[in-house]
Specification:
- It is a single chain.
- By secondary structure, the chain is mostly helical.
- The protein contains seven helices and no strands.
- It has helices at residues 9-13, 15-32, 47-58, 64-69, 71-77, 86-102, 109-128.
- The termini are close together.
- The structure holds protoporphyrin IX containing FE.
């Protein structure tokens, strides 16, 4: 596939509507989960939408999260002092991927490996930033995730 016709991960998964569907359903599962439910007990109704907007920007979509919410430092701030464990992180990532399957999101090896790559990175960062004594770098750049080593979607 010529380089200029390779879509962003954001376009490949179906844009902001697909991300909103994903996070709406995902946080329903999260709330019902015995391990994660209590962690998200006080989550606001607009939380799924905020996470969809954040993921959109990371995956190559519009930079609305940076414009409206304050970029990566603001997101990191939400995790401070939450004492997240690896067990909770693994459950979070697992439920998100199960929800992607449930909603029939693209499941080609290239897309899923890129998505898992970001989720592993982002969720591990969330755990690190949830430990006591961590300070937020106010200039931390927004991560931008692409196709990685595979360089594009499945072409057969
Ligand atoms: C790639 C990984 C992750 C991303 C992109 C992400 C993104 C976000 C964003 C954007 C917010 C702010 C939402 C808002 O402003 O309403 C947030 C808050 C939060 N996140 Fe994460 N997060 C990630 C991983 C995790 C994990 C692994 C956990 C726990 C296991 C977690 C727990 C929370 C909690 C508890 C909040 C605050 C919820 C509340 O408002 O009460 N996050 N996250």
């Amino acid at each position: 596939m010529p380089e200029q016709s390779i879509p962003s991960l954001y376009d490949w998964l179906g844009g902001i509507d697909a991300l909103n569907r994903l996070t709406d359903r995902f946080y329903q599962h999260v709330k019902a989960d015995p391990l994660l439910g209590p962690v998200f007990e006080h989550m606001g109704a607009d939380h799924p939408g905020h996470v969809a907007t954040f993921l959109a920007e990371v995956l190559g979509g519009p930079d609305d999260y940076s414009k409206q919410h304050g970029g990566h430092p603001h997101m990191v701030q939400q995790h401070l002092n939450r004492h997240l464990s690896q067990e909770k992180r693994r459950r979070w990532v697992g439920l998100l991927l199960e929800t992607a399957d449930e909603l029939g999101m693209p499941d080609d090896p290239e897309f899923r490996s890129a998505l898992v790559g970001y989720l592993e990175w982002g969720s591990r960062l969330a755990v690190i930033n949830s430990q006591p004594g961590v300070a937020v770098d106010p200039h931390a750049p927004m991560p931008r995730w692409g196709w990685g080593e595979v360089k594009g979607p499945y072409t057969g």
